[in-house]
Amino acid sequence: MKIFDMPGFPNPLRIRIVLAEKGLANQVDFIKVDLPSAEHKQQRFLEINPTGTVPVLQLNDGTYISECTAITEYLDNLNGDPTLTGKTPRDKAIVHMMQKRAESELIDAVGIYFHHSTPGLGPAMQAFKSPDWEGRDEWGIRQRDRALGGMRYFNQVLSQQPFVAGEIFSMADITVWAGLLFAGLANIPIPHECTALIAWRAKIDARNSVKQPA
Prior knowledge:
Blueprint lengths: L1 E4 L4 H13 L6 E4 L10 H4 L9 E3 L5 E3 L1 H10 L11 H29 L18 H23 L12 H15 L9 H11 L2 H4 L3
Parallel strand pairs: 1-2
Antiparallel strand pairs: 1-3, 3-4
Helix pairs in contact: 1-3, 1-6, 4-5, 4-6, 5-7
């Protein structure tokens, strides 16, 4: 298998953590995609993934799978023993529900703020941002505030249970962790009153798969 990504970036890190959790890192070749130079927005890459995002997983039969949730589902179920996406119908439903919330209320909101209301990845990416329009910065700030609201929501969740989707570490935890990493890069600190979220992050930081992702 091959993975097209950029080391150290939030969404690629999500899949590298999955690979480490599942013991699959040695079965993957990594192909670097230069995000600051907008390589992922060029026709050659768009033929692999028309949404122009990383990571992308290429299977040995040539199939391409994009989107972190889809890649995680594939990798987690390869050995017939899913540990990150839920085993029972109830667990699967809860993991996917929290995964969606982690994306929409945190990591995606941070991404919108970063790419449209800060210098982002630099000049090569300017052409792929939203066109300038009056109030664009205000829109970005609203997304920053949405991310802060997401942090407060997950703080409340984690004050009542050890992990984002319940009792077991799941892909939703990986996404929230990556969202907080991205927020730090975008200068959006975790509110100091979110003590449960801060403690949870320290716990996740200490996981072997997070300390040394593939």
